[in-house]
Amino acid sequence: ETNCAVMAATELSDYLRNGNITHSVNLPDVQQPRLGGRRVCIIHKNAPGVISSITGVLTAANLNIENMVNKSRKDVAYTMLDVTGTVCPTLADELSHIEEAIRVRVL
Fold first, then answer.
1. What residue ranges do the domains of the chain occupy?
2. Distance in angstroms (rounded) separating the CA atoms of residues 70 and 6
């Protein structure tokens, strides 16, 4: 029991600090080493054009994508991007206006 509690706490901490997902029931496992810059994490519907919408918002904000991973499980996908450039405080709000976006975090 102690080992399970430690593992769960470690995985939750990694999600909160780095956006990595491990052993989720509803989301795919996604791990990406941090390469510097800011990290953008988006849970969204798994639908055509969503990645294009996300990168369009980042391009309009003059952010460069250094690293990106996108994985899906059935109807839900998780996209994690490491970006460089000046991240404005409204970026998460702008990304959340994408119709398919469910949750957006900027770390």
1. 2-106
2. 27
| Three-point CA angle 39, 45, 47, nearest 5° | 110
Residues 6+ apart with CB under 8 A from 30: 19, 20, 21, 69, 71, 78, 80
Q: Which amino acid is at 105?
A: R
Contact between 63 and 106 under an 8 Å Cβ cutoff? The reply is no
Mean pLDDT, residues 11-21: 94
Q: How far apart are CA 56 and CA 42, in angstroms?
A: 14
Q: Which helix (H) or strand (E) holds 95?
A: helix 91-96
89/11 Cα distance (integer angstroms) = 27
| pLDDT in the model for residue 103 | 98
CATH number of 2-106: 3.30.70.260
